[in-house]
Amino acid sequence: MKENYMVCNCMQVSYAKIADALDTHERFDNVISAFEEIQKQTHCSTGCGGCHQKVLDVISEIMMGK
Known about the structure:
The chain has 66 residues and is mainly α. It has a single domain, classed as BFD-like [2Fe-2S]-binding domain (Arc Repressor Mutant, subunit A), CATH 1.10.10. 50% of the residues lie in helices and 8% in strands. It contains three helices and two strands, in the order ββααα. α1 (15-23) packs across α2 (31-42) and α1 (15-23) packs across α3.
């Protein structure tokens, strides 16, 4: 299940947490501004940083409605 997929292991941020955080905001214009807001809420990609691209990919996928 995609919802249970752990995107950021350091901060224990799942795909579902990112999707929920995106849903709490009005529409974002781009992935980078969405990433910055998601990072503030979930603290993803603030530990080792190894998940940075995975987080961007998940945000992009969600924003595109896949």
